Amino acid sequence: MKYDQSRDLKQNGAAKKYEKKRIKMPDGRRNSRRISKKSMTFYVVNDAILILLAVICIYPVIHMLSVSLSNQSAVAANQVNLLPVGFNFASYHMVAKRPAFWRAFRVSVIRVIVGVTINTVLTVLMAYPLSKSVNEFPARKYYVWVLLFAMIFDGGLVPNYLLVKDLGLFDSVWALVLPGAVPIFNVILVMNFMKQLPATIEEAAEVDGASYFQRYTRIVLPLCKPSIATVVLFSFLGHWNAWFDGKIYNNNTVNYPLQTYLQALLSQTDATNSSEAIENALTNVKTLQAAQLFLTMLPILAIYPFLQKYFTKGLTIGAVKG
Known about the structure:
Layout: H1 5-20, E1 22-24, E2 30-32, H2 37-68, H3 72-76, H4 90-96, H5 99-130, H6 140-152, H7 157-166, H8 174-177, H9 184-195, H10 199-207, H11 212-223, H12 225-241, H13 244-248, H14 258-270, H15 276-317
Helix pairs in contact: 2-15, 4-15, 5-9, 5-12, 5-14, 9-12, 10-11, 12-15, 14-15
């Protein structure tokens, strides 16, 4: 058969034209430049819903910031919406002079540092052996069932209260961090993430003479940064936002964490007599409360951007297998 070079040239030219009509998507796939009307409608509706949800979430924060920066009379007349009315920093100056707020803030910071450290260390130490197969760890399935049972069924408030009381942990930071020292959901999340790692990596390190502890610290933990960052964020949010345990495990208000202090402050205000004179006196309290609540949100707003890049990967990969 005679070789037809012109036919190959035509085919190559047609292939190149076809490739030019295609674009590379961000996830590595190739798709047509032309988007169908149904796809375009989906993208528009999806973006509109996400923007609406973002506005719903951001609006209360902006309103609270505006209230904290507004004049007292404007707040009393409900004139503050998205922009401050009578811009001033009087409420923040008052917060700076309140030792109770900063004392509670210090208690919360200590709780977060101690609690997140304990949660993270115990989580990664427990997740690694549970990620092994039954051949390497024969009792694995029994431990997993115990963890699942403990996660679903809780002892209840009264047994936990009596346990903390008998251990003499009242009015201390240990009463706030030890009852939840092992977050089982975080253990399962990190365990599933570790199960995704190729076993050949550890086998190669074992052949090179690495010990069990060296394989764990130098290979497994660096590869598990997304899942560890995710559980750190979960633990941080859990400890920072918790208020009920600070209420029941502390007899002295001096030991209240920040959220418990704010909850008690709001409860006292709600229980105040609503006469006209009292309302006029409480006008300053509204701006003061808004300033304190906004300052309480700042640590979360500051730490989340640094962990956000790991959050999605650690959460999705860690939830694939059980």
